[in-house]
Design a protein that fits this description.
With 286 residues, the protein is of the alpha/beta class. The chain folds into three domains: 81 residues, Orthogonal Bundle (Arc Repressor Mutant, subunit A); 95 residues, D-Maltodextrin-Binding Protein, domain 2, CATH 3.40.190; 98 residues, 3-Layer(aba) Sandwich (D-Maltodextrin-Binding Protein, domain 2). Helices cover 44% and strands 23% of the residues. It has eleven helices and eleven strands. InterPro entries: LysR_HTH_N, LysR_subst-bd, WH-like_DNA-bd_sf, WH_DNA-bd_sf.
Length: 286
């Protein structure tokens, strides 16, 4: 389908007549009629009832216009990003701690340099907490691990896939991830988080028994505890994060490695699409 024709369709539905639509998109009344007819021929359906004066959109015409609005928002956002147009506005972004300390700072620096009039406010919470705040309208974007399934009424935007590794003190013996996990006390990555629950489920699936007394949600704290010889853990290799310190050794968790998908939850009727896509492009570029 032609983007220009979709834009004309939306204008015709919103403005109530082909003449008004033509004024909105800069073409003649007859050109609007031809573009609508082209869409109808391509789809094999009637989008407007021409027995009425002026022609009135059919149920299918209104449904297509609703979807076309979202398509046009994505198209316009992509064009703005590609041409380097200045993006202005405000976004309230929530992020889980692992993304706050890895990918997000790099993206914010890029946005500051390329879009200085885009104001971004940052909030921190667990994945579930962010999703709830997004549903209440308190956030525009929630950066987190992908939930399964996605919370009702929210859309998922992919950013990256991060593998998990077993980290242990550099001197810890063991040739496999299971050797490391059963050789020292285990330090849980908080199982109230979506990522933590995923780790627990994978360990149960593999039948790996562990002895654990510590459970925290800070990757830096986990690395420090493991580096001090207090145990082993399973953590994601976060996009944009610093390498693990030399006092640690790491092995992939699983073969192939168990992974998580990181990205953003957004509300379909939330912030303008050009702001959302500009922010997402900066994240993906890290």
């Amino acid at each position: 389908m032609n983007i220009r024709h979709l834009r004309t369709l939306v204008a015709a539905v919103e403005r109530g007549s082909f003449a008004a639509a033509g004024e909105a998109v800069g073409v003649s009344h007859s050109a609007v009629s031809l573009q609508i007819k082209s869409l109808e021929d391509e789809l094999g359906v009637s989008l407007f009832d021409r027995s009425k004066r002026p022609p009135a959109p059919t149920a299918r015409g209104r449904a297509l216009a609703d979807h076309a609005r979202k398509t046009l928002e994505h198209f316009d956002a992509a064009r703005a990003i590609a041409t380097g147009e200045l993006v202005k506005g405000k976004l309230t972004v929530g992020a889980v701690p692992t993304m706050l300390s890895s990918i997000l700072p790099h993206a914010l620096a890029t946005l500051r340099d390329h879009h200085p009039e885009l104001r971004i406010e940052i909030r921190s919470d667990s994945s579930a907490g962010l999703a709830a705040r997004l549903q209440r309208g308190e956030l525009d974007i929630a950066l987190c691990t992908r939930p399964d399934p996605s919370p009702p009424g929210l859309e998922w935007r992919h950013v990256a896939t991060e593998p998990f590794v077993v980290i242990a003190p550099a001197h810890a013996p063991g040739e496999t991830d299971a050797d490391l996990l059963t050789g020292l006390p285990f330090i849980w990555f908080n199982r109230k988080t979506w990522a933590g629950r995923g780790i627990e489920a994978e360990m149960q699936r593999r039948g790996i028994p562990v002895s654990a007394d510590i459970e925290i949600d800070s990757l830096d704290a986990i690395s420090s505890l493991v580096g001090a010889g207090l145990g082993v853990s399973i953590v994601p290799v976060c996009k944009g994060a610093r390498p693990f310190p030399r006092r640690l050794r790491s092995l992939p968790f699983g073969d192939p490695p168990y992974c998580r998908e990181i990205g953003a939850l957004v509300a379909p009727e939330g912030a303008p699409e050009d702001l959302i896509e500009t922010f997402m492009a900066a994240l993906r570029a890290v």
